[in-house]
Amino acid sequence: xxLTTVEQAFxxxxxELLLRPIWHHYSGRVEAHVFICVLAYTLxxxxxxxxxxxxxxxxxxxPAEEAWHASPSSxxxxxxxxLRELHRIHIGDILLETTQxxxxxxxxxxxxxxxxxxxxxxxxxELPERLSPDRVL
Length: 137
Hints:
Helix content is about 40%, strand content about 10%. The chain is an alpha+beta fold. It has a 3-stranded antiparallel beta sheet, with no helix packed on it. Strand 1 and strand 2 (about 105-110) form a beta hairpin.
């Protein structure tokens, strides 16, 4: 059975983006809600397109013992997998005491692991060394 584009959109909105109906009392809020849903769907499909264009594949892991006879095959990486991997990149503050008794805060991004680096490289994204200027607390 072939799904229509609208049915595919609703499937993505409900399953992948976890959106559910919300009842609003004002038309402006309804329009804003629909706008956010369409924006989320557009971003999701754009990420899906970029992952496929980059040829990123999901890593094959050892199958579960009960499915030993199944031979895993490589498949295109989904936005869900990419976001789950990228979500694990940490940001932290390094706090240093100065000789004058002040605290210097250095906000840094942790180095991505091999999978995260592969996704970022495929998407053409380069992480900065820091997110904000160093500051004194």
